[in-house]
């Protein structure tokens, strides 16, 4: 019944324009990237009822309570659960995706993420925290995982001449999703709050429906290249680094290598540092800048700060991933950890002195490297393990993201609450967290230095590789029966880029408009 979603039905012929695939990936990633903008909901969700829970109301009771407000740390688990299930679903379904193809995975992601937000709206309406966790945390997290990895190996195969650029394009939208979604959510909540309550549940409902449609359009735009396809006139260059292999490692053997676990640590610690900031970006800015801006404007300015971080995230994914094609993946990560350490240890000083422009700039630089780390890791994996199973290996490596999704935000959330309970001013409650996150980057730096080429005993044999490619070749012969209409491609290509480009341009302009207030 759903055979048209199968991988063998979306194999492109030699006339297909590979530049049609990135907009499809962007539609999906711009949708799921809204998870980074969820901090705009936290303040409102802690004030829905208007009554603070008594001290004797336990954590378990607050999961089901309806007559008092949730704590911000309770809501923070929504974000962490989503990242946990992102990594878990990517690891579990990564190998399946390689066989089923990106279109089927994209459709599943659309229903999981869009449907999860619709369920979340019900949780907010009924004031049931467990439903919010189920909607965004569990079901939405599965959608995040499937949507995140669906284009990665596909675009690496479409762009063998620019692996870093390809992975940057593949997941660029994940960094920019909040840049579009955060101000949109703020607008919707403000509009509906004048009619009925906080306006949060209506916002989740509308955004869930929009994302479902957008992701379905993206999924049906996916095509995969035939086995052995190469860009016209391109020839593989001679190896410029010992870390770039011409062999391939099977997904079943990747986790047996030291390289996999070193890169797992590299990704986990780079992500833990950045995600700890993103999870609390809006409230952190409000508390640090509370005496700088007028109270009635601080929430909107904080939303602009979140959007500015998202812009930095998206710029970093393209800039650093593309730069890694020339710098090398290992050197790129060396920059992340060394420069990141300096930024984190400097941020408390900037906040304490009230230098908000410098404070914002520091975190913008941090977020470029955070996004760049995500965009560079698939190319790093392709260099180390080859391209045959890079999608599945990438999926398993994303369990590092799951771990970071708990480690980073919970470290910041709970240290903040502990600091405040000890009498520390809220504007200073994040300083200790920043120093600890800086320490994590030093460990990541050491792990990256230790990365070496994979031993040849883990490489796929020529027979294994031939058997796998025969299956794909057979499917290609069966499926490629009709050439793609070149005229239609020329018409649809600019339209596809406009669909993803116009919202991004407006979001960037809106971000700059709001950011001007921060830098005055």
Throw out a few tags for this protein.
520 residues, mainly alpha, Growth Hormone, Chain: A, 20 helices
Quick summary:
It is built from 20 helices and no strands. It is mostly helical and 520 residues long. The model has no long low-confidence stretch (mean pLDDT 85).
Number of separate structural domains: 1
Residues in helices, as a percent range: over 70%
pLDDT < 50 stretches: none
Q: What gross morphology would you assign?
A: globular
Oligomeric organization of the protein chains: single chain
Strand content: under 5%
CATH topology: the name is Growth Hormone, Chain: A
Level-2 CATH architecture: Up-down Bundle
**What is the mean predicted local confidence, pLDDT?**
85
Label the structural class: mainly alpha
What is the H-and-E element order? HHHHHHHHHHHHHHHHHHHH
Radius of gyration: 23 Å
The CATH class is identified as: Mainly Alpha
- What's the N-to-C terminus distance? 59 Å
Assigned CATH superfamily:
MFS general substrate transporter like domains
How many beta-strand runs? 0
Largest sheet: none
Determine the number of helices (DSSP H or I, runs of at least 4 residues). 20
